[in-house]
Structure formats: structure tokens, C-alpha cells
């Protein structure tokens, strides 16, 4: 029983699904408050935690907590495109954009499948981390707004069980694509490259 928890990503997958459910419930319960900063911060923080747990599940047996934190940061920072598109930090402007901001379009993120498929370790790990952060964010948003797939359009909002299942499938797919044996070396290589660049 203990090996199931230590060898397979069951624990982070459960935390991922619970985080999605609690975050969505909190947004639902505070909907009467209307657009406000606490709701926006809650939503963005939930996206960050979802991305962190997604990366943790992808690399479970050899997780680098630095890379997990980076994935969480990337998953949260995607929401900054609301402010860039609105040209303001006014909460009313942020939530009443005429269209979805550019980082919320799923199609361009799928280009990261190319380095994931044919790149070396550093490229594969970087692409997988960005896909974990970006697509986990998009899937969670899809429960309320659907997936934005330019130039094809948008899907209708996804039912909660569907989007939660897709979150788990994303983790397992990226885990398979990376191959659990290559992640530790790839994680160290990314960190070593970052250290070299900062010198």
C-alpha cells in the first residue's frame, strides 16, 4: 500500500483534484460579491496550486520542488495578460474584456508539443513544464468558459467531471511523454543551465 503512494502519482493527483474543487467552490460561494480583488487573487492562486500539483504528479518519483514552484508561478502569472489587455488594474476592466486575452488561447500552447516530442532533455522538460502550467490553467478555466482554440473558435464550458478528468489525463500524458527515468537528469540540467546563465 505504501509503495502505491510513493511510486505512483496518486497523492499529487488527489491534491490536484481537491484544489480544483475547493477553488471552484470558493469562487461559486463568493459569486454574489461580484468582481472583486479577493476573488481574482483566489482564482489566480488556485491556478498556481493546480499547476504546482500538475508538475508534481508529472515528476512524482523524482520531483524537483524548485521546478514545481516554477510551474506554479507560471500557472498563476498567465492571468497577467488580463491586465495587459485591459491596460488597467481596475477589477471591472479586468473582468469585462471584449475577448479572452492571448495567453488564454490554447492552440498556440500546443506548439510546445514539438520540443516535447523531438527536443533534448532540457527542451523536453521546459516544454512539459510550460504545458503543465498553461494547459492546467486552460482546463480549469474551461469549466466556466470553454477552451479557446483559435482559429477554430471556442468549446462550450466543460462539465466539471470532464475538466477534472482532463486535468488528470494531462498529468499522465506528460508523465508518459517525459518518461519517469529522464526527469531527474532533465530537472538537474535545467537548474544547471539556469545557474550558468545567471553567472
In a nutshell, what does this entry contain?
This protein has eleven helices and two strands. By secondary structure, it is mainly α.
Report the mean per-residue pLDDT as an integer: 88
What low-confidence regions span 5 or more consecutive residues with pLDDT below 50?
Answer: 180-199
Report the total helices. Answer: 11
- Give the % helix: over 70%
Give the termini separation. 45 Å
> Beta-strand level of the residues, as a percent range?
under 5%
Count of DSSP strands: 2
Main sheet: strand order:
1-2
Q: Outline, from the CA principal axes?
A: globular
Radius of gyration: 17 Å
Largest sheet: 2 strands, antiparallel
The helix/strand series, from N terminus to C terminus, equals: HHHHHHHHHEEHH
Domain count: 1
Quickly give the structural class.
mainly alpha
Task: Characterize the structure shown.
With 199 residues, the chain is mainly alpha-helical. It has one domain. The protein has 11 helices and 2 strands, in the order αααααααααββαα. Strands 1-2 form a two-stranded antiparallel ribbon. Strand 1 (148-149) and strand 2 form a beta hairpin. The chain is globular. Residues 180-199 have low confidence and may be disordered. It is a multi-pass membrane protein.
Question: Which features would summarize this protein structure in a list?
Answer:
single chain, 199 residues, mainly alpha, two-stranded antiparallel ribbon, 11 helices, 2% strand, globular, disordered C terminus
Amino acid at each position: 500500500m505504501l509503495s502505491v503512494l510513493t511510486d505512483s502519482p496518486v497523492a499529487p493527483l488527489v491534491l490536484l483534484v481537491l484544489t480544483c474543487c475547493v477553488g471552484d467552490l470558493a469562487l461559486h460561494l463568493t459569486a454574489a460579491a461580484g468582481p472583486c480583488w479577493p476573488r481574482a487573487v483566489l482564482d489566480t492562486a488556485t491556478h498556481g496550486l493546480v499547476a504546482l500539483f500538475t508538475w508534481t504528479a508529472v515528476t512524482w518519483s523524482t520531483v524537483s520542488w524548485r521546478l514545481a514552484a516554477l510551474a506554479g508561478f507560471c500557472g498563476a502569472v498567465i492571468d497577467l495578460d488580463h491586465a495587459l489587455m485591459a491596460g488597467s488594474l481596475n477589477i471591472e476592466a479586468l473582468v469585462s474584456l471584449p475577448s479572452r486575452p492571448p495567453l488564454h488561447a490554447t492552440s498556440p500552447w500546443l506548439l510546445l508539443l514539438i520540443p516535447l516530442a523531438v527536443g533534448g532533455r532540457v527542451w523536453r522538460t521546459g516544454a512539459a513544464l510550460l504545458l503543465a502550467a498553461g494547459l492546467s490553467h486552460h482546463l480549469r478555466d474551461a469549466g466556466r468558459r470553454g477552451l479557446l482554440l483559435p482559429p477554430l473558435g471556442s468549446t462550450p464550458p466543460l462539465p466539471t467531471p470532464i475538466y477534472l478528468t482532463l486535468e488528470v489525463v494531462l498529468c499522465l500524458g506528460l508523465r508518459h511523454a517525459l518518461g519517469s527515468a529522464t526527469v531527474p537528469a532533465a530537472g538537474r540540467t535545467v537548474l544547471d543551465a539556469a545557474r550558468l546563465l545567471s553567472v
